[in-house]
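Entry:
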Amino acid sequence: MANQNKLGTGHTVALLVFVSVAAFVPADASASPTSKSVPFDVKPGGEKHTVTDSLKQYKCSFTYASQGGTNEEWMMSLGLSDDDTMFSCTLWRPQGKSYLFFTQFNVELNGAKIHFANGYSQTAPAGQDVPLKSDEFSIGDSAVTHVEGKFRSQLSKLTVVGVIKHDEL
């Protein structure tokens, strides 16, 4: 079983379609929001920073430390499936490639159990995304984290999708 994917192929395709739509479609302000994207700056300097946002009662937190250059504008895109069974969080650099060196990262979901995650060292409009190697990060039930000594410090996009926990009656 691959590190990036804890679901079968059919579920993976459905999740990728969901994430693609959720990451880039603005929410309708008149309806209950099912997606949103907010910009934030990734700051170099080696200090840990955390960016957190939520959609309804579901929360995504991105903690990182990076070195080199100046601030970069990134986006955090959150999405809920139409049936409220999946929550996604995508962190990405709109320019495709980050020139910062990430020394660490952690993405945590609150309110959903992670079933899919993938990271990219660079992304391109023509679909030439370069995925991180499976040994560069680990996937837990609620967090995706760099692997010390294996992560190669290049990051331009992280996608995490979780199944929403529902209480049984």
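Helices lie at 9-24.
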